[in-house]
Fold:
Amino acid sequence: MMQRNLRFYSKLFLATFQLSAFTFGGGYVIVPLMRKQFVDRLGWIEEKEMLDFTAIAQSSPGAMAVNASVILGYHLAGISGAVVAVFGTVLPPLILLSIISMGYSAFITNVVVKNVLRGMAAGVCAVILDVVIEMGGRICREKHALAIALMVGSFVAVAILKVDVVLVILTCVLVGLLTTVKHKPDELPKEELHDLP
Structure:
């Protein structure tokens, strides 16, 4: 277990500050960067935990980056970790938007700014596609029939049938709860047993 000292909190703050400062597009754009930072570089969490945090953050109200920071910080160091992580996450956009607001009219009509934002939008699409392939590939590799069915069914419901996303999320939550209640602890796979409190 890592020490929760000033050095740890400083690293947590700087890591979340850096992620927030250089992440444009929100949502799933932050996922690969968080994985690289906290799974690969710092080794504070496992990849499966990162995917679980992502699912919870996406299905919770509010900005995904802030939700993910709260979950990550709380997982690592309780309430104090959550506060530090959230502060590191909200500070960069707060500073940036405060600066932009002072010259909003000139900023929004600038041709260079418009072209930069257009180029960033294309990059954001590529990053989101990468996250979808990575997360979907992991579910397929685990060969969990119910998870694959939920993934495909959710895509069809939202993209083709135009079902409200809220209904899809609530349905998936209900299926997850029913699956958890149905299985007793001794029937769960070993990796899931390891995660139980």
